[in-house]
Amino acid sequence: MKREGYYNDAFRLLAKNVPAMLSLLVLIIFTFAAIFAPFITRFDPDKQVLAQRLLSPSLTHWFGTDEYGRDIFTRCVYGCRISLSVGIISQLISCAIGCTLGICAGFLGKKVDDVISFFIQAFSSFPFLLMAMALMYALGSGIMNLYLSLGLLSWAGTARLIRGTVIQFKKQEYIEACRIDGGSKLRIIIKHLFPNCIPMLIVAATLGIPEAVLSEASLSYLGLGVQSPTASWGAMIAGAQTYIRTNTYYSLFPGLCIIITVIAFNMLGDGLRDALDPKLR
After folding, report:
1. Burial per residue of 29-54, b for 16 or more beta-carbon CB atoms within 10 angstroms, e otherwise
2. Taking Cα atoms as reference points, which of 143, 132, 137 lies closest to residue 230?
3. Residue 65: helix, strand or coil by DSSP?
4. Following DSSP, what letter does each residue of 154-177 receive, concatenated?
5. Rounded to whole angstroms, how far apart are CA atoms 217 and 205?
6. End-to-end Cα, the chain, rounded Å
7. SS3 for 71?
8. pLDDT tens across 228-252, in order?
């Protein structure tokens, strides 16, 4: 089957998946809000107005205000920028590392495979959040360090997935024909193996983004991620814990943003997996 027809069929299957399409719509809305945040809300996310601290939700402040009088809706919208950027960029780093090592492990032979598989097992055996906390403590807080930390620590699952895909495809007759015809290993990887790994990479990235969003929220909650006054859903929940009994809305709205984003990415990832995996068709 030609790749164009394969992706056309996958798109048609995905379009029939109602939960996946609703999730995609939600993520498009969140992305739109993150990009056009200054045009969506008239408040400054970092401006403190102590005279308006801890106001309940109203027509002026839809989600209320925090302990510094900052508009919670505005900070949720700007926090979407942090969460989506961390999720997407960290997964780009993760997929680049995982795909490279996975292809090398699956295609280049036993010695290379043994070494890379050892590192895959080593990275998979440690608690992810604990490693992220240690690395963030060593690098220091900040958005760039979040990108690097989450990207450098989350490649093992992608590498394992790509390794299995390459082992499966390298036994195909057209790969052997290309090798007999004098095709170099680099040519085989670029022209034949990598294109067959793209569907798995798409699924891995889509399912990995919500994990990165949760990790960013956890690290920011612990004070190791994005630092105040930058708006972050995890940092907002950390600031709201003192007022959890008296001002429940303060932690409710950023928590809902995290839940909706994670569920939407997971449902979209499940839909993409069903659409892109020929065995599930």
Report:
1. ebeebbeebeeebebebeeeeeebee
2. 143
3. strand
4. S-HHHHHHHHHHHHHHTTSHHHHH
5. 18
6. 14
7. strand
8. 788 889 888 988 888 888 888 888 9
